[in-house]
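Translate sequence into structure tokens.
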Amino acid sequence: MGLPVPLPGRRRRASSSMRAALALLPLLAAAQALHRGKAYVREKVCQEYKILGKENFRTLTIIDTSRKYSNGTFQEIGHLVREIVSLAETCCADGADPSCYDAGSTALSEKSCAADSPFPAHPGAARCCGQQGLERKLCLAALRHPPQPQPRFLQPSDSELCHAFRLEPREFADRFLYEYASSYSQAPLPVLLASTTTFLSMVSTCCISPAPTACFLKEKRERKTLSLLTLTSNRICSRFSAYGKDKASFSSLTSLAQKIPTASFEELLPLAEDAAEVACQCCDSMAEDCMQKKLLEHTARVCSALSVRDERFAACCQGKNLMENHFCILAMPPAPATRLPELPEPTNKELCDKEGALHATRFLFEVARRHPSLPEAVLAKLYDTSGKLRGECCSSKDPSACWDSKRQRIAAELFPFLKKAEQLCGQFHKLPFLEFKKRLRDSLAQSEPSSAPLEQLLEQRASFASSCCLPDAPLLLCASKVTSELGELCQGDSCLLG
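Result follows.
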């Protein structure tokens, strides 16, 4: 079943075993490195294989390949895991031919490029397979699936878990590792390893307990912090992976601005930069407690700064469990719209000076706090457009003239779109879904031409709201939906925000 699943009374031993495995994670090469064929990689993989043992090595390989190919099927991941483990088992044995590993990894790359390859498909594989030798192996090693739009793992009932566990323990563990790791593929590897290990320990302990219901209740309470850490770190690292550090900081800034619009830019920017720094330090870290330690320190800073300013933050921060407090803040809906002074706009000169990016970020912060229901995907589009316009105008021969012309288009395109998106998500947050769709249908019937396909437009807008007005909206899906909505708004013409 992979990492040893302890019987009752052996949980401490399992915990120390897990820590030992985590200490070896810097050596983990698995699917990424096994293609490379270099002697130093073989030595690292073989050292890891020999210290961990075949079953623990296999468990880590399932988790790592499921993270990397998060859209692959269980069968495809199984094929790849078997090949990787077999390669390590054969070529890391005492007395194995030194050329064994290089020949085996070459054969693995050839199999990856075959028309009938049983491994997970990737659109970039064709480019890699056009190369030869080490270049092909390195190219294949760099491929990675985008994260799933939403985690698809659904925990079965306790009785269903025990039935599957008793029926076929090894397949149960393999399938769980695959489903959980592919669903939370952006969570740091040590977090995933800890979470999956404790889950399997819970199942093996409680399914043979004379009082399984009480056992599961106790174990789930003990796992709650780790479960929340997995969920939140997956979300944090998904944004960091998609956005990079600067845009991730902007995302945190506007999220806070929409939850507490009375707070100033100077108050919230350091907290947003701190959140991005947590992701930067911990999303790829192999340190066992990096994410939990840094995230809890960040949560303490947010609570210290904002709980005295806002009763909703005070309510979230009153608990003793900082991870629960952090999750409460993440799930907090936007605040009601607040009356604020007229939106201040940066001057043309400010936008092009050495602090131009900061001036643009401050302006978008002001937009966000005045439009608390604007979805993240819209604000992300504004951020991208802001950078594009600064690059275009600040490098032109007449920056001021360039900005003046852009401002006219911003007034014509940006503010109507913001108003429409704000109204849509505002209604979605306030109303039950069926009532939301009824009012949306009435609104579209009045505002759109009679020839427009009303039902199609209704479903399109309802789909946008139900996917993208939520705090944990899928980034790539919603970015695509925003682009589509903008295309319709501009009626096929070139959009400033497109």
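Note: The first helix runs from residue 11 to 23.
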